[in-house]
Design a protein that fits this description.
The protein has about 260 residues and is an alpha/beta fold. The chain has helices at about 45-50, 65-70, 70-80, 100-105, 115-120, 170-175, 200-210, 230-235, and strands at about 1-5, 20-30, 30-35, 60, 90-95, 120-125, 130, 135-140, 150-155, 160, 180-185, 215-220, 245, 250-255. The chain has a single domain (about 1-255), classed as Metallo-beta-lactamase, Chain A. Bound molecules: zinc ion (2 copies). One zinc ion binds near residues 63, 65, 144 and 165.
Length: about 260
């Protein structure tokens, strides 16, 4: 399983790249499968460097905040009006309830029918796993002001745990346990951001990964451009015993 960080800026696009978007690819049954986790503002641009958006196998949306889903609007235009012809199949989009209506509003239409001609929306349910080619995906309900999920993705013995946007919560333990890589929200800064129930800090992400047990690598992401990523790394390093990694746009990580 190959992870490509397409965008990792927190809350809005940053100077170096777009908001949340992670491409997962793996060879299976004679071809390369491609799944996108989140498609936040600006992500459809650089995604085209790494995969053909017309031939994605599925999109997973952690939640319906714009920095995680809004570029589905551009993908809808691409898949509908491409001069080479529209996409031949509806793209499965695994998302919280209401995704079709949410995207219809973004397009300025009242009914979700036009986006549902492009997308096959499938509602996420906590711990109800599903398979896309070589990937087994288990969503875990996490703590954020809207319905939000983290994704545990398993592929041929390798496990990636992506928290989406969340504060510390019990479901982080089964989400992260024994993962080869934890990709964790670290939008908040200890000592500055006192609100709870929204985001992890680097320190809280590291605590969750340590408590889950068996995690091999910790990578922080969703750092807004108004933060110093090195502060997030240092705060995680107070808890995490190994190297704390920082997601960067264009980064490629092979797992398994
Ligand atoms: Zn976010
Ligand atoms: Zn959010």
């Amino acid at each position: 399983m190959r992870l490509t960080v397409v965008g990792c800026a927190g809350s809005f696009p940053g100077r170096e790249g777009p908001a949340s978007c992670y491409l997962l690819t793996a060879e299976h049954a004679g071809r390369r499968w491609a799944v996108v986790m989140d498609l936040g503002n600006g992500a459809l641009g650089p995604l085209q460097r790494h995969a053909d958006p017309m031939s994605l196998d599925a999109v997973l949306l952690s939640h319906l905040h714009p920095d995680h889903c809004l570029d589905l609007t551009g993908l809808h235009v691409m898949r509908t009006h491409h001069p080479g012809g529209p996409a031949s199949t509806r793209l499965p989009v695994h998302a919280p309830a209401g995704a079709g209506a949410r995207l219809a509003r973004a397009h300025g239409v009242t009914a979700p029918s036009s986006v549902e001609e492009t997308y096959d929306f499938r509602e996420l349910r906590c711990r109800q796993d599903f398979v896309v080619g070589p990937f087994r995906v288990t969503p875990f309900r996490v703590e954020h002001p809207v319905e939000a999920y983290g994704f545990r993705v398993e592929c041929r013995g390798a496990t990636l745990a992506f928290t989406g946007d969340t504060d510390a919560c019990p479901e982080l333990t089964p989400l992260m346990a024994d993962a080869d890589l934890v990709l964790a929200d670290a939008a908040f800064v200890e000592g500055r951001d006192e609100a709870r129930g929204i985001h992890l800090t680097g320190r809280r992400a590291a605590r969750a990964a340590v408590d889950a047990g068996g995690v091999q690598r910790l990578m922080l992401t969703h750092v807004p451009s108004w933060n110093d990523p090195e502060v997030c790394r240092a705060q995680a390093g107070e808890i995490w015993p190994g190297e704390v990694e920082l997601a960067r746009p264009g980064m490629v990580v092979d797992l398994g």
